[in-house]
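pinned: reference chain
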Amino acid sequence: MRTPRNDQLTDTDRAKGRGQHVPERRCVVTGEVSPAEQLVRLALGPDGSIAPDVHGKAPGRGAWIGVNRADLEAAQAKGKLKGGLARALHEGSLAVPDDLGARIEAQLRRATLDRLGLESRAGTLITGNDKIEQAARRGQVRLLLHASDAGEDGRKKLAQAWRVGEDDEGSGREGAILPVDRQSLSMALGRENAVHLAIVDARAADRVLAHLSRWQFFTGWSRDAADRVSNTDSRTSGTGDTSAASAVSDAF
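pinned: its C-alpha cells
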C-alpha cells in the first residue's frame, strides 16, 4: 500500500538500502516534491494544533515543508502556510503557533546533537586533536566537525591531516563548522572540552549529515557566516551558545 504524500513515514520508508524507492513528499508552501528526508514534517494534533515532527514519527495526519525559516515565516505572515496546510490536511480549523519556525529550529538542533551523542556512545565518533589527527592521517575519518568557537589554526591543521589521509591534497576539503559552541557539544556528548569531532564510520557520517544538512538549510547558514562567527569567537571571550544562528561549511 502506498503511503500518502502528506502522511507520516512508514518503517519501510526509513529502511535504508532496502529497494530503490526513495519516498517523496510535497512541500505545502512551494508545491515542489522532494525526498522526504530533506523535508520537515508538521503534525496535526487531535485539537487541530500544528507541531513540528522532525523525525516523521508522530501518529495521525501530517504535511511537509521544504523551505528555510525565513521563507516559512514569510509564508506564515501572508497566510500562505495555513492555506497550504488546510488543503493538504483537509482541515479547515487549524492552529499554527506563531513561533513555529523557532520550534522547528529547536527540534532540528536537538535531533542533530542527539545523533552526535548516539554516535559517541556507539564508538563511531572520536574527540581530541591528537586522536583525530592520527585517525585522519590513516584515512579513517569520514567526516570532520568543529564547534563554532573552534580556533582557525586547529581547524586548518586537522583539515590538512584529513586531506593527506584521503590522498586529497589541494582539494580544499574542510570540516563542517557546527552551529553550537564547545560547551553545548561537550554537554551533548558527555565529554569535556569537545571542540573537534571526527566520525570514523561511513554510515555514521551519513546519519549525522542527514540531520545536519536539514538544520543548515532551515536556518540558511552560509559558510562565510560560519567563518565570521568562528573568527569572532576566537577574538572574544565569554560568548554564549550560537545555536540561534546555525552554521555548517562544506564537509567534502
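why pinned: Residues 1-6, 11-18, 228-252 have pLDDT under 50 and may be disordered. The domain at 103-235 is CATH 3.30.1330.30 (60s Ribosomal Protein L30; Chain: A;).
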